[in-house]
Design goal:
The chain has helices at about 1-20, 30-40, and strands spanning about 45, 50-55, 60-65, 85, 90-95, 100-105, 120, 145, 170. By secondary structure, it is of the alpha/beta class. It has a single domain (about 25-170), classed as Leucine-rich repeat, LRR (right-handed beta-alpha superhelix). A 5-stranded mixed β-sheet has the order 4-5-7-8-9, with no helix packed on it. It has a two-stranded antiparallel sheet with strand order 1-6. Strand 2 and strand 3 (about 60-65) form a beta hairpin.
């Protein structure tokens, strides 16, 4: 009888290891993919955008290109250019759209604010001219890095930004 228990225990351990060490990535939740697609559709690609942007964090010029151009429903959003997901649960935790040639009005109630787990958000070097920095940025409770540099935001910095207790760097000019 003890031998049977040992075999079952070993089989159980093997199956647990197999389940938790699976190399297949988790898929992006559909609500997050739809939020990203709605965000993408709020903007146009600016064909006259500069070819290069200066990355202040590395001190290097990077090539400008439309990162959102090939985002679509048929692929997992975790594989989209500029989107990074938590490897364990698949939630979007980073959005790097710097120098993405985005142009248009940034809406304070936009779908971007449905990505509650963001730790890093970089919208620098785009053209959101005349848009205000939304107070909703203060709702990203996990946000550690926020970069809105040289993207045409105007107005005062909302006090809600102070709610970002994990924020380590912010470029808002």
């Amino acid at each position: 009888m003890d031998c049977v228990k040992l075999v079952f225990f070993m089989l159980y351990t093997f199956l647990c290891q197999l389940a938790f060490s699976s190399s297949s990535p988790h898929l992006c939740p559909i609500d997050q993919a739809l939020s990203l697609l709605q965000f993408k559709n709020m903007f146009n690609i600016n064909p006259n955008a500069s070819d290069y942007c200066y990355d202040i964090s590395t001190g290097v010029e990077i090539q400008s290109y439309p990162r959102t151009l090939f985002w679509n429903k048929s692929t997992d959003c975790c594989s989209w250019d500029g989107v990074h997901c938590d490897k364990m649960i698949g939630l979007v935790i980073e959005l790097d759209l710097r120098c993405s040639q985005l142009q248009g009005k940034f809406h304070s109630n936009g779908s971007l604010f449905q990505l509650f787990n963001l730790k890093r958000l970089d919208l620098s070097f785009n053209n959101f001219t005349g848009s205000l920095i939304s107070p909703k940025f203060g709702e990203f409770s996990s946000l550690m890095h926020l970069d809105l540099l040289d993207s045409g935001f105007t107005g005062i910095i909302p006090s809600e930004i102070c709610h970002l207790s994990k924020l380590r760097s912010a470029y808002l000019d």
